[in-house]
Structure of GyrI-like domain-containing protein:
Amino acid sequence: MTIETEKVDFKKTEKKFYYPKKVEAIMVPEMTYLTVSGAGEPAGETFQKAIASLYPVAYTISMSYKKEDCKIPNFYRFVVPPLEGLWTSKTVPKKGEPLKKEDFVWKIMLRMPEFVTEEVVEWAKEEAERKKKQDFSHVKYEKIEDGFCVQALHKGSFDEEAHTFAQMEEFAAAEGLQLIHKTYHHREIYLSDFRKTAPEKLKTVLRQYARTKEEDKR
């Protein structure tokens, strides 16, 4: 199977989800993801292994057109999107206290095109296991809908995200919105490779769930 079309890059075709120019409200539809869930600090071994396990599966799918014996229905070439993560914590710190990173609970993920099904993911995991000689059973296929949210672009260190969250809270209050906690507190989309980029130069989309204050009273 030979596909010569230009790769679809969601960062270009759906810029509103990746490049907010200001703090804004947005409706985020259901999307398809490869996910790995876990807990612990981002610098920990568990988190790093989770990231490393996503990419072999994602690239197996994205490069499948080169395999003559693999024909994924409705396949099109695509750029593997940025890493994303849903975050919450086992504990809530008192005002003014820092978060305990060892208490973080996360679901790290890579978005996939809509043609990717659970069957495709299972095939890709088997292929990746055969090539890499490692276990990918913890990589899951999920469809996730963020729904109505407030989002903003955070520039700088992850440790300084509180400043951007404060701006998002101010925006929500001014717009008559209520920020809410679902299973997770917020989503992060990593536009920069935090393994290679200086902390002060990082760019991260922050997204929190929201609803109108009228809905909150119901």
In short: DSSP finds five helices and seven strands in the chain. The mean pLDDT is 93.
